[in-house]
Amino acid sequence: MRFNRAINPVKVLSFDLDDTLYNNHPIILNAISAMQDYLQSIPEWANKEGDYWLECRRHVGATQPHLQDDVTTWRKVALKFGMSQLGLTNDEITRHSTNAYQAFADARSNITVADSVLALLQKLAKKYTLIAITNGNVEVDKFNLAGVFERVYLAGPDGRAKPDAALFQRACQDLAVKPAQILHIGDSLDTDVQGANLAGCQSIWLNNQQTTYTYKGLADIEISDIHQLSLLE
Questions:
Q1: Which of 16, 19, 164, 187 is flagged as catalytic?
Q2: Where are the transmembrane segments (predicted)?
Q3: Taking a C-beta distance cutoff of 8 angstroms, is the pair 217, 194 a contact?
Q4: How far apart are the first and last CA of the chain?
């Protein structure tokens, strides 16, 4: 654990989810694969050349850029757009886009958080209010993080995606705390650390990803393993 700045007293620990409390890479790959398996069962979709899904996603992202703050709606709209180009009936468009998204969502939340991480969170919860702030669309109630957090804030439904300050501001309002009383923990300098810093919150960077970031600011604390948070108990 490396301290870049002294930490002021905090009341709330805010956690990013994907790649912070569990390895999200295989999970998202499995979710995309489940969705693609369903899409390939639709003859009209399977007959499209190239990566038709990626084309649809990019088209919707470019023509409706506001959806990029809400990955769930973005995916649903892209699926409907793709179906609408295949000559399907309205009923078929609705049924296939719903089923394709559900295949993705079911696999997306097929997660098991390690017992050691759950134990850590349980200990921290005795001293702090625990919340989650995520840009992703994982459904916490569907796996073993259910009931761990006082609140879960999702980009899109609850505000613009990190690094925008909106989700942090929403948490401050709901919990009646000042920004500096929230300590946010996440794996991304660009979204988690930058977002927390912009909102006036304190931040911990979990530096365990082989990723290049554009944000040059510092987190208050840097760790390499989530279990180093035990020092906050």
A1: 16
A2: none
A3: yes
A4: 14
HSE-up of residue 15 (Cα within 13 Å, Cβ side): 26
Q: What is the pLDDT along the chain (233 residues), one digit of tens a residue?
A: 899 998 999 999 999 999 999 999 999 999 999 999 999 999 999 999 899 999 999 999 999 999 989 999 999 999 999 999 999 999 999 999 999 999 999 999 999 999 999 999 999 999 999 999 999 999 999 999 999 999 999 999 999 999 999 999 999 999 999 999 999 999 999 999 999 999 999 999 999 988 999 999 999 999 999 999 998 98
- Residue 22 to residue 39: CA distance in whole angstroms: 28
* H-run or E-run covering 152: strand 151-154
Per the structure block, which two tokens stand in for 108? 């997306």
Q: Full-prediction pTM beyond 0.85?
A: yes
Domains in the chain with CATH codes: 2-22+112-232 (3.40.50.1000), 26-108 (1.20.120.1600)
Among candidates 106, 150, 110, 130, which has minimal Cα distance to 22? 110
Residues in the chain: 233
Q: Is 16 a catalytic residue?
A: yes
Residue 153 has a CB neighbour count (10 Å cut-off) of 21
Q: Measure Cα distances from 52 to 42, 58, 196, 208 in Å.
A: 13, 10, 36, 33
Can you tell me the distance from the alpha carbon of 31 to that of 114, in angstroms, rounded to the nearest whole number?
Answer: 20
Three-state DSSP state, 75: helix
The two structure tokens encoding residue 15: 């956690």
